[in-house]
Amino acid sequence: MASSSSAAAPPERSIFGWDPRDETASIVGDWIWRYGRGVADLEIEAKIGRIIDSHTGERLALPVASETILNMQEGWRFESSMSQPQHQQLNNLLNSLVTPSRRVSYRRVREIDYAYRNRVRVTRDSDTLAIRQPHGIIRKNRLADMNIYCPNQGFDFRISINTETDVDEEPTEESTSHREKNRLCYTHQGFEVDLTQVTRPEKPQEPLHELEVEICDTAALLRLASAAKSAPAANPQEWSDYDDFILVFLNNVRMLIRQVTP
């Protein structure tokens, strides 16, 4: 019998000795750099949901067998919602990550968002109605969306790049709409997972349930991107810190999706 010292070494990652860069992470990273470069007050988040075919009213069905970045077509739309049991399942899962290790921190937020003309939003505390500090009055602009179809899972996801710019004064006119948010926030190494129940006055008995993963420090992310783009590796398949960060972002979303019962 061969001794343990002569046991076979693990196989090399490829004939070249390393893993290829993750193609989806590379595409997402280049896309974020294209839209986010030089932009202040950037927000980058991924929401889970389903891509719906408006012609059938059902989830999109495409002849692909794995995760796919889509070029959205007429009649397709993304819906960022889940059922109450799925919300509870994720709540229990995320709570289980907080208690034993302390790697994941947790807080609960109850707020009301008031929408105004010109994309202005005012966020108030649900109990005191005081305007949130900081960033309680903002103007939100959407720069780009990327929709990712996951045929083997119960959910797809959409990555959004937005700006959220502080507004100095509270609007004087009446708000056009409002919604109440009961949000659970879980933070882990540069990412925040927000699990939210949204109540709307027109349908108080039909709350919406949403989950999003947000990058906490987009300025730091863009610094990583700038370093990777300004001094590219000699080998185009070599991973940068920026590639790694984007892959962790995607993996957080993927792992959450895979935990939910369809």
UniProtKB/TrEMBL annotation:
Residues 22-215 form the mRNA triphosphatase Cet1-like domain. Its EC number is 3.6.1.74. Its main location: nucleus. It is found in: Nucleus. Keywords: Hydrolase, mRNA capping, mRNA processing, Nucleus. It comes from the Eukaryota. The keyword Nucleus applies. One of its GO terms (cellular component) is mRNA capping enzyme complex. Its cofactor is Mg(2+). GO terms for molecular function: mRNA 5'-triphosphate monophosphatase activity; polynucleotide 5'-phosphatase activity. It is an enzyme of class 3 (hydrolase). GO terms for biological process: 7-methylguanosine mRNA capping. The keyword Cell membrane does not apply. First step of mRNA capping. Converts the 5'-triphosphate end of a nascent mRNA chain into a diphosphate end. Heterodimer. The mRNA-capping enzyme is composed of two separate chains alpha and beta, respectively a mRNA guanylyltransferase and an mRNA 5'-triphosphate monophosphatase. Belongs to the fungal TPase family. This is mRNA-capping enzyme subunit beta. It comes from Tilletiopsis washingtonensis.
